[in-house]
Specification:
The chain has 379 residues and is α/β, with parallel strands linked by helices. The chain contains 12 helices and 17 strands. The strands form 3 sheets. A 7-stranded mixed beta sheet has the order 1-2-6-7-3-4-5, with helices on both faces. It has a 6-stranded parallel beta sheet with strand order 14-13-12-15-16-17, sandwiched between helices. Strands 9-8-11-10 form a 4-stranded antiparallel beta sheet, covered by helices on one side. The longest helix has 16 residues. The chain is elongated and about 70 Å long. 42% of the residues are buried.
């Protein structure tokens, strides 16, 4: 394996001839390391948890079982790195992994090194850089093409993990600061506008919901949207005064908010990290939420319904609720990206995808959302 030096740190080239991209990554892990699929814990546990919190949950369980664990965090990327700064990977002493920091090749190297005992003497956090040149990526058929810098730390004390999990379970946003020289960890409250920070000596990462999603309606479509949004680390709130629908909500990690939609939106005080989607298909409920949401700071406001229904809705909001044309123009309707969605799950994919697109300020290439092909009209 070739190596490189990056600002005085140990560097490694991610280039493995046996990492065949034609084999799905997890399948290759099973084959190369003889791990039964049940050992890849992050494939099957706690579907409603965010991915980072799931990693911490696995770390806690492994340490309580007496296993050694190395926690790896992406701190900087260059080029086409597949995982953003802040992404987590935990590697157990026998090579079992939770989370990811790349498309697979970096994980392969870390697993091999940990199984070989190279990390047995790791007592403090350290840094490592990985990179792949275009020539090496083409030669080995790897999906990588960028460079990433990682902080790797041995996990000994799990008190901070327990506290993070407890606080995030209460919908708190927590910042964790790691001092690389000593391994000391401190926790403090964070705000939605905070971001991961790394200055070479301290690393501050965030845990908990930085983004909120309020769904009006608790039906089948709302439940599918809630499930997907929770996986994306949204704090998901659901408002539906209709007990017949709300009674079947029952999703872990999703909070039902009591009250009428307009009152709930007012009390929520939507900010630039809040999305609101009306999905009841009942204008008496949806419009109540929209008339407040469209005048708020919410970064995304959407509503279910066909294009004809949306035109009628916009006119109604301006004529009867005194909303300005500028406010009504903020409405995403028909809600979702145009992907030809038909089923509730497919429509949920289109809705969540559009929310993420707007959140990340991605350029929109969709003239009309998917729901317009399947939504029924409201009179």
């Amino acid at each position: 394996m070739a190596s490189l030096q990056a600002e005085g740190e140990l560097g490694r080239i991610c280039a493995f001839g046996d990492c065949d991209q034609r084999i799905p990554y997890f399948e290759s892990i099973f084959a190369l390391y003889a791990l039964p699929s049940c050992e890849i814990l992050f494939l099957e546990k706690h579907a409603m948890e965010s991915l980072d919190l799931r990693v911490l949950g696995d770390v806690l369980a492994w340490r309580q079982a007496g296993r050694r664990v190395t926690l790896v965090t992406v701190v900087e990327t260059w080029g086409s790195a597949p995982r953003p700064p802040g992404a987590l990977l935990a590697v157990r002493d026998d090579g079992v992994v939770s989370g990811s920091v790349s498309g697979g090749c970096v994980e392969d190297d870390l697993i091999a090194r940990i199984k070989a005992g190279e990390y047995d003497s790791l007592s403090h956090p350290s840094m490592v850089a990985y990179g792949v040149s275009k020539e090496e990526a083409a030669r080995f058929g790897l999906p990588c093409g960028g460079t990433l810098r990682l902080v790797q730390e041995p996990v000994s004390d799990v008190t901070w993990i327990q506290e993070v999990l407890q606080r995030t379970a209460s919908h708190q946003l927590v910042a964790r600061t790691l001092t690389l020289a000593t391994g000391q960890v401190t926790l403090h409250d964070a705000s939605r506008s905070d971001a991961m920070q790394f200055d070479g000596s301290t690393l501050t990462t965030l845990f908990g919901p930085r983004w909120r999603l309020l769904l009006i309606g608790a039906g089948q479509l709302s439940q599918a949207v809630a499930h997907m949004a929770a996986l994306l680390d949204f704090e998901v709130l659901v408002c539906d005064p209709r007990e017949e629908y709300a009674a079947t909500l029952g999703l872990d990690g999703v909070t039902r908010v009591l009250g009428m939609p307009d009152d709930v939106v007012k009390e929520l005080v939507p900010d630039a990290h809040t999305a609101i989607v009306a999905l009841t298909h009942d204008p008496k409920l949806d419009d109540m939420a929209l008339m407040e949401a469209l005048n708020s700071q919410a970064f995304y406001v959407g509503a279910l319904g066909s294009q004809r229904n949306q035109d009628t809705r916009k006119n109604r909001l301006m004529e009867h609720f005194d909303l300005s044309a500028e406010a009504v123009a903020r409405l995403h309707g028909p809600v979702g990206l145009r992907i030809g969605a038909k089923t509730p799950a497919e429509i949920a994919v289109s809705i969540v995808a559009e929310i993420v697109q707007v959140k990340n300020a991605a350029p929109s290439h969709a003239a009309a959302p998917a729901a317009s092909t399947s939504s029924c009209d409201l009179s």
